[in-house]
């Protein structure tokens, strides 16, 4: 590790600690050349798969775009930001778990719909109406029936 003060290429590790959640390693270092101390952090770097759009073009996965689409569907609904962040995180984990280098945008859309169905039925129907490009009222009614609870007789 290069010293940030004098750029000496060899530094000593004085102390190593894992964070409470175990995601980050904190290291206290000392430069033997200038005697200054500094802290470094190590994190796992995971690469999200590229998104293959309907037209065949490819784009980098954008967490902010995913979160924004969830927020748009959930606008003015009683769902907190923590729940939106948790849903975003679950979708990212599923994408990483696939182990693919590329994933079709349709797959991401299906994951979003699954999360919305769990979070809020109205948001699910909103998203589905745009995502599935409903052409008539019957398609909209079918989506509502998908989420409408069955009544006991």
Please give the structural blueprint.
Elements: E1 12-18, E2 24-30, E3 37-43, E4 50-52, E5 58-59, H1 63-73, H2 81-98, E6 102-104, H3 105-119, H4 121-131, H5 137-147
Parallel strand pairs: 4-6
Antiparallel strand pairs: 1-2, 2-3, 4-5
Helix pairs in contact: 1-2, 2-3, 3-4, 4-5
The strands making up the biggest β-sheet line up spatially as: 1-2-3
Mean pLDDT: 87
As a percent range, the share of strand residues is 15-25%
Name the poorly predicted regions: none
Elements, N to C (H/E): EEEEEHHEHHH
- Sum up the overall morphology in one term: elongated
Query: Helix coverage percent of residues?
Result: 40-55%
Number of helices: 5
Main sheet attributes: strand count, strand direction, barrel closure: 3 strands, antiparallel
Kindly name the structural category.
alpha+beta
Characterize the quaternary organization of these chains: single chain
Let me know the number of strands.
Answer: 6
- Backbone CA Rg: 23 Å
Q: What is the straight-line distance between the termini?
A: 70 Å
Number of domains: 2
List keywords for this structure.
153 residues, alpha+beta, 3-stranded mixed beta sheet, 5 helices, 43% helix
Q: Your description of this structure?
A:
This protein has about 150 residues and is of the alpha+beta class. The protein has 2 domains: about 30 residues, no CATH class; about 100 residues. It contains 5 helices and 6 strands, in the order βββββααβααα. The strands form 2 sheets. The chain has a 3-stranded antiparallel β-sheet with strand order 1-2-3, with no helix packed on it. Strands 5-4-6 form a 3-stranded mixed β-sheet. A hairpin with a 5-residue loop joins strand 1 and strand 2.
């Amino acid at each position: 590790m290069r010293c940030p003060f004098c750029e000496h290429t060899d530094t000593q590790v004085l102390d190593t600690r894992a964070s409470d959640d175990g995601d980050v390693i904190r290291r206290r270092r000392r430069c033997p050349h200038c005697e200054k101390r500094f802290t470094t952090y190590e994190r796992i770097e995971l690469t999200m798969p590229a998104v293959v759009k309907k037209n065949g073009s490819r784009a980098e996965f954008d967490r902010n775009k995913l979160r924004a689409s969830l927020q748009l569907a959930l606008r003015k609904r009683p769902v907190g930001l923590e729940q939106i962040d948790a849903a975003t995180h679950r979708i990212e984990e599923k994408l990483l778990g696939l182990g693919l280098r590329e994933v079709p945008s349709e797959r991401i859309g299906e994951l979003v719909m699954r999360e919305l169905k769990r979070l809020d039925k109205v948001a699910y129907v909103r998203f589905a109406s745009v995502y599935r490009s409903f052409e008539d009222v019957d398609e909209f009614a079918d989506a509502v029936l998908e989420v409408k609870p069955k009544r006991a007789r």
